[in-house]
Design a protein that fits this description.
- The protein is mainly α.
- 63% of the residues lie in helices and 0% in strands.
- It has helices at residues 2-31, 56-71.
- Helix 1 (2-31) packs antiparallel against helix 2 (56-71).
- The longest helix is centred in the N-terminal third of the chain and has 30 residues, at 2-31.
- The radius of gyration is 18 Å and the shape is elongated.
- It starts with a helix and ends with a helix.
Length: 73
C-alpha cells in the first residue's frame, strides 16, 4: 500500500527537480548571452564603482536566485 505513495512522491520530486533545472538554465542563458555579463564577471569597474554597461542590481539578483535555486536542487 505504501508503494504507490512512494512512486507518486518520487514522480513529484522528479518534476520539481526538472522545474528547478529549467529555471536555472534560463538564468544561466540570460547571464551568458553575448551581451550579458557572464557568470563570473566583476560587477565593479577598475575604480571600484558599479559598472555602467550592465544592470548590476539585476545581475546580482539573478546570481543570488541561481544560488538559492541550486541549493534546493
Amino acid at each position: 500500500m505504501a508503494a504507490p505513495n512512494l512512486k507518486a512522491e518520487t514522480m513529484c520530486l522528479i518534476e520539481k527537480r526538472e522545474t528547478i533545472e529549467t529555471e536555472m538554465n534560463a538564468i544561466i542563458s540570460t547571464l551568458t548571452q553575448p551581451s550579458g555579463p557572464g557568470l563570473t564577471v566583476n560587477l565593479l569597474d577598475f575604480e571600484g564603482f558599479p559598472r555602467s554597461d550592465i544592470d548590476v542590481h539585476a545581475v546580482r539578483a539573478q546570481g543570488h536566485h541561481l544560488v538559492v535555486v541550486g541549493d534546493n536542487r
